[in-house]
Design goal:
The chain is an alpha+beta fold and about 120 residues long. The chain has a single domain, classed as Winged helix-like DNA-binding domain superfamily/Winged helix DNA-binding domain (Arc Repressor Mutant, subunit A, Orthogonal Bundle), CATH 1.10.10.10. It contains 4 helices and 5 strands, in the order E-E-E-H-E-H-H-E-H. The strands form 2 sheets. A 3-stranded antiparallel sheet has the order 4-3-5. Helix 2 packs across helix 3. The radius of gyration is 18 Å and the shape is elongated. It starts with 12 loop residues before the first strand and ends with a helix.
């Protein structure tokens, strides 16, 4: 995958013709996703945009368990929306793996809220 210089987006054109995006049935990245590096020994592409490389380095520092997207945004000092887009690009390039947040039981949340109201 070749990255277009300055745009931060991968070049989708192969041999001068538009190829289109690969459609996957994965949920979009949110601030609660946990992100980890897929293969730490794999070299980065030479033309990877600097913000994506900084984010990748932050993922490496997080270790094998990874870190949440919102924590990565705080670590690299980028806006949360930018980090969400960069994680999506790194995921599409198979450099990082993400784990969606665990679904929370709504009944449990309502009981906790009721308990807080009683206090």
């Amino acid at each position: 995958m070749r990255w277009e210089t300055g745009s931060g987006l991968p070049n989708r054109c192969a041999m001068g013709s538009y190829v289109g995006r690969r459609r996957r049935r994965r949920p979009p990245v949110t601030e609660l996703h946990r992100v980890r590096v897929r293969d730490p020994g794999r070299p980065l592409p030479d033309d990877l945009p600097r913000p994506a490389a900084v984010l990748y380095a932050s993922c490496l520092r997080a270790g094998p368990d990874g870190a949440r997207v919102r924590d990565l945004a705080a670590d690299v000092g980028l806006p949360l929306g930018t980090v969400v887009v960069l994680v999506g690009l790194l995921r599409e390039a198979a450099l990082v793996a993400d784990v969606p947040p665990v679904r929370v039981d709504r009944d449990l949340l309502e009981r906790v809220l009721a308990g807080l109201y009683r206090l």
